[in-house]
Amino acid sequence: MSENEKAIVAAQKVLDEFMEAFNARDVEAFEATFNFPSVRLASGKLILIDKGFHTPSMFTTGALADWDHSAWERRNVLHVGPDKVHIDTRFSRYRKDGSVIGGFDSIYVVTSENGHWGVKIRSSFAP
Q1: pLDDT of residue 82
Q2: Which residues contact 36 (CB under 8 A, 6 or more apart)?
Q3: Count of domains forming the chain
Q4: What is the pLDDT of residues 89-123, one digit of tens each?
Q5: Residues 6+ positions from 104 with CB-CB distance below 8 Å
Q6: List of residues 6+ apart from 28 with CB closer than 8 A
Q7: Are 21 and 29 contacting, i.e. CB atoms less than 8 angstroms apart?
Q8: Model pTM score
């Protein structure tokens, strides 16, 4: 397997773990899927995220007030190098009854830093 193929496998694994931890509302596991500082660009705001930024209340307020879980709809690799992968994604958010809150296109940049693969940058149309 080439270095780029290994990078793709590692980056996709991070996105699997990211979604699993998010849906489990497991802040510690969720933060383990990042490389800090991390950046999120959404709703017209650029946010620099450091370890400890995420809290349990994020799962019950604002845009996630009636959210139950999310799922990836698309994860296409745009660019790849041995230590960075750009991924074109779409995810949907769902209510407990299974109805869709919305689907959102995003770009994720997953990097390897000191041997740890994690989300470094997200640019999303999600609120």
Answers
A1: 96
A2: 49, 50, 51, 118
A3: 1
A4: 999 999 999 999 999 999 999 999 999 999 999 99
A5: 90, 91, 92, 93, 124, 125, 126
A6: none
A7: yes
A8: 0.94
Task: In whole angstroms, give the CA distance from residue 50 to residue 39.
Answer: 9
3-class DSSP state for residue 13?
helix
Question: DSSP readout, 25-64?
Answer: T-HHHHHTTEEEEEEEEETTEEEEE-TT---GGGGTSGGG
Got the DSSP string for 59-75? GTSGGGTT--EEEEEEE
**What residues make up the domain containing 48?**
3-124
Query: Residue 78 is part of a domain; what is its CATH number?
Result: 3.10.450.50
Q: Collapsing DSSP states into helix, strand and coil, what is residue 107?
A: strand
Task: Fill in the DSSP letter of residue 6.
Answer: H
